[in-house]
Amino acid sequence: MSTFINQPFVEFQMNGDMLYLRSRISPIFSRHNEREGTIFILQDVTQFKELDKMKSDFMATVSHEFRTPVTSMTMGVDILRQQLLGPLTKQQEDMLDSFKQDCGRLTKLVRDLLQLSKLESGSIRRSEELIDMRTLIISAANQVKLQFKEKGIEIAVTIPNSLPSITGDTQQISWVVLNLLNNAHQHTPSGGKVELSVSVAGDELLLSVKDSGNGIPKEYLGKIFDKFVQVKHPNDPTPGSVGLGLSIAKDIVEMYGGKIWVESEVKKGSTFTVQLPVQQGVTA
Predict the structure, then answer these.
(1) I need a labelling partner for 45 at 20 to 30 A (CA). Which of 1, 130, 185, 216 fits?
(2) Closest-CA residue to 184 (of 129, 121, 222, 141)
């Protein structure tokens, strides 16, 4: 019986052109389980790699083109909503609140597409800087405090006075924390509560974000971290996201040797937990 082993892409130049090959290797055994040879297969995947790069470049370009007008729209809505240009009727205030929510969804989509294009193009690489996790988490909570208040959601943060540092990229890890908080904000109704807690277990740092939303149906739990998965609730009119944030968060966490998982029950909310290795003896 033979088993194929897929090897990483092999790249080399031929006549000045870069070629990408995928290799597959498998031993051949006789009926007596004696090795008789090896199958070695090379598949030219240059065209697929080029198409993949075109897709990533397209996403990056579109995201950058969207960023400026979306920012301008958001600023314009804020100016109008604060009645800096004159008083508003109740109906006008409600319409602007709806516009602001739509701008928020567009902003998140642009941010997610930019992050995805960087991951797929390989421009995001593992960093070895020491991260002060306590400062990072407090900063992330402060960044979302206003939007939670505007929606009427309580946010509670439980964090030790000192935490061991982790190795990583501050911007990338901060993106993961903010994504989990924004995800909780999206799925928690007005009057609900979101809890952000951090603890240390042995050589691991555990960060959990618990919401009081609708929860995740069982059929979605096994694929919630896949790209473009949107959880549908029959009684929830809230527009869903594109389904990129959790997939990107998983890629970043695993890049640094960590894990991410979810525990959820319908009508009882969800808890997303990130586990990251800590640097022993280095405390922020």
Answers:
(1) 1
(2) 141
What's the chain's Rg over C-alpha atoms?
23
Would you kindly state where each structural domain of the chain is located, as residue ranges?
A: 5-44, 49-121, 129-283
Q: What angle do CA 279, 259, 165 make, to 5 degrees?
A: 20
Q: Which two tokens stand for residue 187?
A: 């799925």
Give the model confidence (pLDDT) of 89-136 as tens digits. 999 988 898 888 888 878 878 888 888 777 777 777 788 899 999 999
Task: Give the 3-state secondary structure of residue 164.
Answer: strand
Q: Residue type at 6? A: N
* Complete DSSP assignment for 168-226: E-HHHHHHHHHHHHHHHHHHS-TT-EEEEEEEEETTEEEEEEEE-S----HHHHTTTTS
Stated pTM of the model: 0.71
The pLDDT, as a whole number, for residue 239 is 56
Distance CA 261, CA 126 (A): 21
75 burial level (CB within 10 Å; 0-12, 13-18, 19+): exposed
- What does the alpha-carbon distance between residue 282 and residue 49 come to, in Å, rounded to a whole number? 41
DSSP 240: P
CB neighbour class for 21 (10 Å; exposed up to 12, middle 13-18, buried from 19): middle
CATH of domain 129-283: 3.30.565.10
The CA-atom distances, in angstroms, between 148 and each of 95, 193, 283 are 19, 9, 30
